[in-house]
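Take the subject:
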Amino acid sequence: MKHQKSFKPVLYCSLLVLFMFSAQLWSQPSTSRRGRLYGDWQVKADFDGRQMESILSFSGDRQGNQSGQWISNWGLSELKDIKYEEGQLSFSRVSRNRAGQSTKSKFTGTIKGGKLTGTVSSDRGEYKLEGKRSLRIPRAVGNWELNYKIGDREVTSTLVIKVDKESNLTAQWQSQWGEHEITDVQYKRGKLTFKRKSKIQDRQWESTFEGTVKRDTLSGAIKSERGDITAEGKRVGAPLIGTWNLEIASERGSRNQRLRVNPDMSGLYGASPIKNVSFDGGRVGFKIVRQFGDQQFEMSFAGKLEDSKLTGELSSSRGSQKVTGRKRSSTRARQRIEQVRVPSREPDVIFVPTPQEAVDKMLELAEVKKDDLLYDLGCGDGIIVVTAAKRFGCKAVGYDIDPERVKESQENVDANNVGHLVRIEHKDIFTLDLSEANVITLYLLPSLNVKLIPQLEKLKPGSRIVSHDFDMRGVKPDKVVKVTSDDGYDGEHTIYLWTTPLKKEDVSDEEELWR
């Protein structure tokens, strides 16, 4: 009895401690709470008498960094200053029209019960925005090509799994051998099960399937009174399924867009639904139908997927547009600033933007190619590395010692969807090993160019170095050209080209005086 009486206080104390600990955990922000924000939200608004449909897409990394995009039928823009806590959501957005004019707006609202509501405000006024979370498609959904043996005979069938608006799964078993009906489809934590009734001529039997989905493979067994049959499957269309960052180019300029191809080969182009995306032998096609009042407007895409790159044309009655795209990585870590030790000293020069005309001439003079690796030393706003990636498809790294410039460059990279090619690093350029690069771009003072000579001499033979406006004393340039800017920058700009090995030359005392 004494032991039983003494046990109760200990039990009560243990339960009390457990309750307090659980309450403390619940009171702290957690990844799961942020997860209530992450994903796609289908939103609607009535703007100037027009019904507008868009998608808000939120994601984050393990460090708690949050990112987002506003995706409409006309393009996409990045969301900034995202804050989400206790159901309260806010963010800002800069959108640009085709004339290049920008509008900054701010959203404040709430997420409650799976619904997003709030107000978008700008200098043009404000409007209400409301929406709901997009349906999350289970990994099991899609078309699976299954291979198995019946005796000595190799058999291939297609398992088609679909999901309805209530998240219920249905399936079809498509085979040249007999008729099959599938019921009770269940998918939980990577495990797929269902029941099957089969009929071949006058023979009928029942079986069950138990399998595991791992990314784009399905492994399992068909079980019946006749025994077990092992089946292995692959997802149809796997190389195309996912989210694609697109660049749409026409005579009026270029814009960015998002294409999402779902496991069941339905999709979204911007915010427009696609019923079916065809994919056969690397060729890709789909159609979009948009409603404008009483009129319908149809666009069609025809292209190909090759070397993880999507290219093609988007056509309508108004003409055609060139499309290029890259699949978005499952993590945005590559697009984020590399975490390195921050240099302690101040920048050597003040930041002065390089006009686009000068950038184009620098890259032209350096004869940049897709296989090149370009280093921009003092990347500023990132215009050189972004242009090189977009125009030539080459890899590029921008380095800057000023954290504000690093942030600005990274924003430029993100806004142009070239994070798969471009990296921005916060480093002191005079500590770098440049030997991996074969193109170097500079906009520094002559004395700083000279200071870089020992590092530049370690470049591979045939590497190109281009500098905007400033020469490199003691090294003879291969070419010197002039370029005029018409976008608000005064006068001519001089572009210098050197190739390695560098051609040293003597500098006279008289010349030094004039410098």
Q: What stands out?
A: The longest strand covers residues 203-214. The helical segments are 2-27, 31-35, 356-365, 383-392, 403-415, 446-451, 453-456, 509-514. Residues 2-27 form the longest helix (26 residues).
